[in-house]
Amino acid sequence: MKIGIGNDHVAVDYKWEIKKYIEDKYGYEVINYGTDSKERFNYPVSGEAVANAVVSGEVDKGIVICGTGVGIGLAANKVNGIRCVTCSEPYSALLSRQHNNTNMLSFGARVVGIELAKMIVDAWLSGVYEGGRHQVRIDMLHDIEERQKMK
Ligand code: RB5
User: Fold this and answer.
1) Which positions of the chain have pLDDT values less than 50?
2) Domain housing 11
């Protein structure tokens, strides 16, 4: 399993801690697409980079972190094929995998304490998409993307 990770300047140290946590606990390869500098860095850049890596298959899933998790999650969701959930608790993270088949997770370094973030990551990584009745809704999300392309 390969996880892409991205961040802006607010979440540099936080990113390293989450990366190490996933590597140590799960043995997954975590590939860094974020900034390593605390100089101002615009979150859409790394949100898009991780999203592109997910869609191309370079990585299996993506995790992106900014101050709130909102901006970088919005950027990721602009890429066709991405379903990124912005979470501040584990329940939504788990359900977003089981029901929405999310392929990216975002959270905020200024919002979510690092230990809670690890619980969110655990819930999200452990969630398995249930398919079935949920697939028609995922297909409808895809249809929205297709209709937007035709505009
Ligand atoms: C940066 O100041 C901040 O706006 C960014 O990290 C993020 O919270 C945006 O959604």
Assistant:
1) none
2) 2-149
